[in-house]
Amino acid sequence: MGDSADPLLAEGLLVNNGEFDSEVAKDEKKGNSWFSSSSIIVANMLGAGVLGLPFACRQLGWLSAALVLTFMTTYSIYGGLLLGKLRRGNKHIESYGELAKYAGSLIGEAGFWQRFCNVVGYTYVLGSLTIYLTTMKISLMEIFQKCPSAPPGSTTTTTTTTTTVGPHPAVDCGSTQCSDHLGMVEWKDIYWLLITVAIVYPLTFIKSMSDTGIVSYLGVGTIAFVNIVILENLISESTTGNVVQDHSIFPENLQDFVDGMTQLTFAFGGHVLMVDIQASMHTPSHWPKSIYSSQLFMAANYAIVGFLGYYVYGQGVSSIITASLKDNGLRAAVNACLFIHVAVAYAINSNVMARYFVNKLWPRVLDNPKMSYFQQTWRWVLVSTLIMFVAGLIGSLIPFFSNLMNVYSSIGIMSLSFFVPTYLWARTTHMRKSSYAFHMFLLVLCVGGLSLGMWGAIKSIIYNMKTCK
Length: 469
Prior knowledge:
mainly alpha; globular; two-stranded parallel ribbon; disordered N terminus; two-stranded antiparallel sheet
């Protein structure tokens, strides 16, 4: 089935086995296993998003949260599978933009979809890097920042301010995390952000996606520890009766529903890197194993942490669940592991973005054997440094954690995780009318989610900037 002879894919066809066989045979000892690829996906996607899920459940209410989580899990799996189907084992497709160009060429829309996916995709990646820096900064503050007004020996903790005022959006006045257990200094946000940048900066020198497969195990292990401690704390609180009896079945207003939906959607972001991850696999035909295992593992974590966190803390839950933990050494360990996990996610995303821009500025310099190590490295370091500078600058200007998640989930996830794979699959595949109508319905949902998400995020940011002094 050549591309020129048959421009449309047969529905249900995952790969061209011949193409996969040749790809594997050519480089049979290199590449990641399906399990390693699944670990990279988890390390990339399961991180900052899970911390805001109890707060998202608070905004959605029990029933809406359960329905949205189920839908997003199912669609996330389907979107990941579609990306594998559209790639068809083509070893020359190594990025989302290249995949969009290839699939778009089958329907005469190659240029548009490549440009669209590159612009939106790398905007989303940059946004993710901003979220990661903000999350790591908050983790450091919850360990080392001294609470300004707490008396000696006190165990109280100042956390992120999140309240709901009548019909207005929930107020999130940025990072005020601190600790009386280990807190040593009182510094401004910007100082903690600079320290975060200094610690993470060496990880930006990783130039190979295969190398990130090694550190991804560290990322998965640390987030597993974070989840276990959070769950143990929540279970302990619930069994001892320390449960806030202040819950709701439905969201209080449209703003809460939209904000909760977009925060939960952010937890499933990361499809923009899935093509890169599949391209680095030893046997790309095992891609479905990576998708099912990673997405179901994440969904289980999200359901437990989100629902249990909301059950214990009710309407008073913080926008970042770690801020609700008791101020002790265990919470410090949780934040240390969270910092490591998010640092790994930063390295993965930075790797993809830096590679794209280095290849754009100096085509094929990274694959040219005639280029010295120094010639390749200084270009990589320059681009990685500029990327980190821009991400840090955005994080310093907009310190509202939940609002940042809502903006980037609306722009990047609704479009690249859901809309684009569905659209390209529907347009390049022979399918029944009922199947085509179903895919069109999914596209309408994506457009509606994106529009509502942007409306809610912008409204919240404007309100927070006016309210927070």
